[in-house]
């Protein structure tokens, strides 16, 4: 029974660390992700290729 709880703790810690790692990666790549989504939405709505040279998304302010 003790080994079962050890495995549960190990799995829980691993999942927690994986979630933290994915969160850090998402925060670091937020500008790239937002830029590609904006370019794709512009292309879908206008039919023309859009090129955004610089896009900064700040987490502390609601402006783009």
Give the overall pLDDT as a whole number.
Answer: 91
Give the helix level as a range of percent.
55-70%
* SSE order: HH
Fraction in beta strands: under 5%
* Unreliable segments of 5+ consecutive residues: none
* Domains, number: 1
**Class per helix and strand makeup:** mainly alpha
Compute the gyration radius: what is it?
A: 20 Å
What's the SSE blueprint?
Layout: H1 2-28, H2 30-46
Quick structural summary:
The protein has 64 residues and is mainly alpha-helical. It is 69% helix and 0% strand. The chain has 2 helices and no strands.
Notes on the structure:
The longest helix has 27 residues, at 2-28. 69% of the residues lie in helices and 0% in strands. It is mostly helical and 64 residues long. It has one domain (2-46).
Defining key terms:
mainly alpha; 2 helices; 0% strand; elongated
